[in-house]
Amino acid sequence: MSEPKFTPGPWRINQAETLTRGLDITDGTYGDRIASVPLPKYTSDARQRADAALIAAAPALYRALKTVTAELKQMAQGEDCDHSVGICWCATFGAIENAESVLRDAVTSPHVARLNDQAT
Ligand SMILES: [Zn+2]
């Protein structure tokens, strides 16, 4: 699996520097802005604050999913279903496959590949 090229965590949520009302997601080490989440002018900003929290948690979520997936894969290694006696690993194998796909997409999406091409 490709190594992630995203800014390592932790990411932090701060009041936006360039938006009148909004939040910045920043690198926890250098304070560089990673993303800005504008808050709505006339409605509740709860959803945008929740979005900012989810974005800021992305590096930790990525690492946690990668760890859990590796542990689960090791646990299921060599196991096979025997549906005749009620042994079934289908859901586990499916969950591992889905998690690996999500992790792969997070670091190799076409958008990321296009940006990498532009940088070289
Ligand atoms: Zn099964």
* Largest β-sheet summary: 3 strands, antiparallel
Task: Supply the helix-strand structural class.
Answer: alpha+beta
End-to-end distance, in Å?
Answer: 21 Å
Global outline = elongated
| Percent of sequence in beta strands | 5-15%
Low-pLDDT residue intervals, each spanning 5 or more residues: none
CA-based gyration radius: 19 Å
Q: Total domains, how many?
A: 2
Helix content: 40-55%
Query: Ligands bound here?
Result: zinc ion
Q: Please count the beta strands (DSSP E, at least 2 residues each).
A: 3
Task: Tally the helices.
Answer: 4
SSE string, helix = H, strand = E?
Answer: EEEHHHH
Strand arrangement across the biggest beta sheet: 1-2-3
Averaged pLDDT: 89
Word description of this protein:
- This protein has helices spanning 46-56, 58-76, 90-108, 110-119; strands at 11-15, 22-27, 33-38.
- By secondary structure, the chain is an alpha+beta fold.
- It folds into two domains: 1-56, no CATH class; 60-120.
- The protein is elongated, with a radius of gyration of 19 Å.
- The protein starts with 10 loop residues before the first strand and ends with a helix.
- The mean pLDDT is 89.
- The structure holds zinc ion (ZN).
- Residues 81, 83, 88-90 line the site of zinc ion.
